[in-house]
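Thread title: Can someone regenerate the structure for this chain?

I was given the following input by a collaborator and told the matching structure tokens would be attached. They weren't. Posting the sequence so someone can regenerate them.
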Amino acid sequence: MLLWPVLTFIYVATDNETDHAVASDVIIVLGCPTYERNVVSTTFSSCLLARAHHAADLYHRGLAAHIIPTGGLTGPSPSEAAAMEQVLEGDGVASSAIMLEEQARSTVQNMQFSRDIMQANGWRKAILVSDPHHIKRAAVVARDGGLIITTSPATTNPAWHNPDERRKNLLRDTRALMTYQWEHLWGGPP
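Best answer:
Regenerated them for you:
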């Protein structure tokens, strides 16, 4: 039991900057707060921008023809997904390629609702986009939920390059993954 936190941290903190993206049906880009510290601004949060720009890059590289920005209203509007849609369209992604998912308020819900969209469209394989500190936990949740995914971390968020922020986020995601594993062990939702 004492090794569990250490092993979970090692899992979350290693191989989380490697881009494993391969040609897929869709890109699932996970939301994060629309604005820094949920304070309305003229620009969206650096986390949201990094993820959306990265998803647009994957789209333009021809790795998938569709994008699911996923994330509901977790602070001031617009929703995380709607904000990412604005960034994606600004980056030249066709609006017809974007399938919004605006209900999710957690990583588990991101995967559940994205899976529903994928099934409705007959899509089987997805590229998962999130920050490096979050990508490994998100991948576990996605695979537990039956999704066939590869991961492609968005590494340009300034918080990832700040040692204090990186450590704080890695520890937070380690704790969140352990909570998820514990709940999943006792029959929680995949």
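The first helix runs from residue 3 to 13.
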